[in-house]
Amino acid sequence: MATIETNNNDANLPETQSPVRVELLVLAVDLAQLLVVGLVLDWLLFEGLEVLGVIRLGIVALLLVGMLKSQGWLVLFALQVSLLSREPGRPDMSLGLVPWLFSLTSIGIIAYAYLGKPLRSSISKWVVMQALFAFGLDDQSQATRSEAQATSPNWLQYVAVQFVMWMVVIFVSMLALLRLPISSSVRSEWLRSAIENDFIIWPGATLLVLALLMVIVFREVGWRQMTTAQASLYLRSSLVLDHYRDLRMIVLRQIKKNRKQTSTLVPQKQLIERTEVK
Amino acid sequence: MTNRARWLLFVGLVGLFAGILRGQTILSLLSLSVFVWVLLEWFRFQARVHFDLPRLEFERRVNGSTDANGTLWVGRIVHIELQVSSSRAIQPVIEFRDIVPEILELLESSLAPLPPRPKPINAADASVLQSFQEWILRRFPKGNALPSPPNQWTLDSEVSWTSQAEDRRNAGWFDEKPGSAVLVQNCSTTFSYRVGVRAAGQVTLPGVRLTLQDRYGFFRMHRFVQLKQKFRLLPDYFQSAELRPTIKRQNSLPQHGIHRLQRSGTGAELLELREYVPGDPPKSIAWKVSARRDKLMTRKYESEVPVRVHLFIDGSFSTRIGGYGLRLIDQINFVAASVAKAAISIGDPVSAMLVDENSIRRLPWSAGDRGFLQLLKAFAEFSQTAPPASLTMTPYLMQCAVRIGHERFPELLERRYSSIPFSFFTATRERYRMAGVIAEVFDLNPKEHVECIHDNTKFAYYLHLFLHDAGMPWMAPMIVAPPDPAAGGHQRMHVLGEAMAKAIAHARDNEVFVVLADLVSCAPNLNQLLRVVKLALAKHHRVAFVCPTTTFLRPGSEVVEPKSGSIHDLMVAAEQARVRDLALQMKRDLVRLGVAVSFSGEQNAIQMIIAEMDLARDGRTLVQGARS
Fold it and tell me: For strand B104-111 and strand B187-197, is the pairing parallel, antiparallel, or unpaired?
């Protein structure tokens, strides 16, 4: 059975609040969201640093403008520069709650920047709707109101799922940092275990196998998406590329010959005369 | 992968290296997390491509019909509905674009009025989605209009030849654009738009181009789904009661079941009496009535013999150049169809000779609605001829072909599937890829494939075919340079004269020959045709010439003044002056022979021809007093 969901049927919708007023409310919530994000960014960037207020404000404003234009990499870049300048180097790479929380918040902000206006407006509209319900500023029936209040918006579910995913992502990254011989302590541990086991002296082989495995998985997944036309094109172009030199030689010779024939055309009369002379 | 993802990965990579080198934990963790996040998103995107795309189904209804073939009429509005359905929820951001060839003009694109919406059947999230969106809609009504898509995109400032109907939907939960549609579980939605038909010929609606993208915009993929529907486009015709009198004063009641031809002619039955006008045959003067009224009166008789109309349709090179709807052949088709309709509606049979530079095709005599339809089909077929392949390779030709390639074969232009020889230059690499697409589309062998890479002539030939199949009119870059108007005039006049001579040889007395041709461009060679025209007149046939001109070159009697002193305006004025002189000279020559001439492809030309048909029916010699 087909379910059709459209939102072009607003001709019969009850008008309880003037659209201008609601738009203003949404705009206000939009600004509030940006303000919160700006504060979080300020905390992430300048925590523990003594920077002039104007400069902080300028940098955060610049990043917010970048976020409005879905330039999430700017946020990442700013965070990295900030960390580069203020984070103390630790050879042991000890990981705890603070790095985990910092990374989670940072990725959340970057994702917010990339999701952009749709997410922002959805949140704003939902907040405005809830506020209207809470203050009783609309004339909907009680049943509808309670139903709407009971249902959580879809974006909330989505954000929750994403947060769980980001947690997993950061966990995997932490694991990688702890297990791979990046820090000096892990490197020494690898070396010690290699000597004790007398098996390998460096984890290069393991890394190579891992890298190869990933490449194979990536390529395999990519090739599985190929359409028939793409497969045909791939075969065709690969064949041409394999024999390209020979084919090019044949074709260029043929073109040259054709040009020569075209340029050395002689009038019919001269041709006859030449034949007679012979 | 999009640039957005590339930038993010690049910044993350730099940060990761810096963090590892300096032993900064948070920096390393953050950078590596970004890497893993993008990787995970890639897997999710690939999974969606793998599982969601094959489930998508498309169905297009053109005027309510899903048939693969059909007929459309020029000048009439066509309603097209595209139904997209899927057996499962479509969560990614997805864009559908139904490709509309240039011969169709996009008039309006909107969400179709849909039937009452059924309740969602199962999924709780679906009901949440609905209620949430309903509330949003109630709160934020903004009208039904879609965000207006770019109806036409132009390749440069001179020519716009590809139009596209675009129904863009972000089918995610956060899309709340007015008029948007959301596909939920077991869902389908319909997008509709209206198009107008610009010119007679044929059109193929090729299919739907869809773009799949993840929510963050890290990955994007284009696919083209074939959904071919082919239509014959029949020319429009003028239908008005004013063209011909319909009131007949009958002198006697006919017997039951007998329907006389309600036209004046040379029959025995009196149709009406009217005042004498110069040109009426003396034998038709009603002397008694004239004596009674003290002024000359003429008897009009019913027509017993239908007047046969010969149409000579010029389909030469110059009549086909230009955008659809603006070509000379479009005007010729309109006049020919209107004349044929006017003649056939009163029982006069119509025949046509389709003439181009090299060939003559004679259509049999047609009568009745079926015959009229056959004529229109022949006109439509005649209008749809492949252009002469220009073998000149130009950058603009390449640019257009690449655009069309991206539009119709996006998956073939993906870099990873096309192995090309190494080159430093972007243009060369683009040519290699395009040659691969051409080889795939036209199923070329490896040698021909390499010829396309190195032989400009061969490549230009295939690119022309490629653009022609995409429905491009005879404009740049299909036509590299406008032809010399006088070139080929001798041959055209020869073929046209030959066609007229053939028609005269097979004609009976008192027939009407209508020549619809671009005579202005070959006015110096008119003498060739005049000999045949004299022969036709000598055999008591009526001859009418219709020479349509493009709007900007319509010859007028007044002196053409340039709009400004710019070179362009001066050249336009000079061209108009040249055409005006040619047209006036030609008109003098033809009118001197007693031939009717019209330099327009509009209603005036149709009325002139119908007046000529009436004259042929009456047996009179002058146009004055013609009942039109």
Answer: antiparallel
Of B33, B183, B450, the CB nearest to A248: B450
Q: How far, in Å, CA of B374 to CA of B376, rounded? A: 5
B439 in reach of chain A (CB within 8 A): yes
Strand-pairing partners, residue B96, are B167, B210
Do B436 and A237 count as a contact with CB atoms less than 8 A apart?
Answer: yes
Name which of A15, A111, A237 is nearest B216 (Cβ-Cβ).
Answer: A111
pLDDT of residue B177: 37
pLDDT at B231: 92
Confidence label for A96 from pLDDT (cuts 50, 70 and 90)? confident
User: Which chain A residues contact residue B40 at CB under 8 A?
Assistant: 165, 169
C-alpha distances in angstroms, A49 versus A55, A107, A157, B15?
Answer: 12, 21, 36, 20
Task: Count chain A–chain B contacts defined by CB atoms under 8 A.
Answer: 310
In B106-135, the residues whose Cβ lies within 8 Å of chain A are: 111, 114-115, 117-118, 120-121, 125-135
Please, what's the b/e burial string for A104-114 (b: 16 or more CB within 10 A of its CB; e: otherwise)? bbbbbbbbbbb
- Give the closest residue to B488 by CA, choosing from B315, B316, B353: B316
Strand-pairing partners, residue B285, are B298
Residues 6+ away with beta carbon under 8 Å from B245: B627
Check B29 against A177: CB less than 8 A apart: yes
Regions of chain B with pLDDT less than 50: 111-186, 245-255, 258-260, 552, 624-628
- Confirm if B610 and B342 have CB atoms less than 8 A apart: yes
Tell me the residue ranges of DSSP E strands in B47-103: 57-62, 69-73, 77-86, 93-100
Min Cα distance A16 → chain B (Å) is 8
Name the residue among B29, B117, B419 with its Cβ closest to that of A174: B29
Does the predicted interface ipTM exceed a cut of 0.85?
no
- Chain B residues touching residue A148 (CB < 8 angstroms): 131, 135
Bigger pLDDT: A176 vs A239: A239
At residue A199, the pLDDT reads 59
Q: How many CA atoms lie within 13 A of B357 on its CB side?
A: 14
Q: What is the percentage of chain A residues whose pLDDT exceeds 90? A: 5
In the predicted model, is pLDDT for residue A139 greater than 70? no
Distance between CA B491 and CA B503 in Å, rounded?
18
Of A129, A158, A236, the CB nearest to B135: A129
Q: CA-CA distances (angstroms) from residue B527 to A6, B41, B364? A: 67, 76, 29
Q: 10 Å Cβ neighbour count for B78?
A: 20
Per-residue confidence (pLDDT) for residue A224, from 0 to 100: 77
Beta carbons of A16 and A53 less than 8 angstroms apart: no
Contact (Cβ atoms closer than 8 angstroms) between residue A37 and residue A66: no
| Contact state of A110 with B8 under an 8 Å Cβ cutoff | yes
**Tokens matching residue B382:** 């005649």
Instruction: Give the per-residue pLDDT at B377.
Output: 92
Q: Distance (Å) from the C-alpha of residue B455 to the closest C-alpha of chain A?
A: 7
Strands B187-197 and B77-86: antiparallel
Are A3 and B121 a contacting pair at CB < 8 A?
A: yes
- Which of A19, A79, A176 lies at the smallest CB-CB distance from B32? A176
Share the mean pLDDT of chain A.
Answer: 75
* Chain A residues with CB-CB distance to B115 below 8 A: 4
Query: Pick the residue with more confidence: B184 or A227?
Result: A227
Chain A residue whose CA is closest to B23: A89
pTM of the model: 0.71
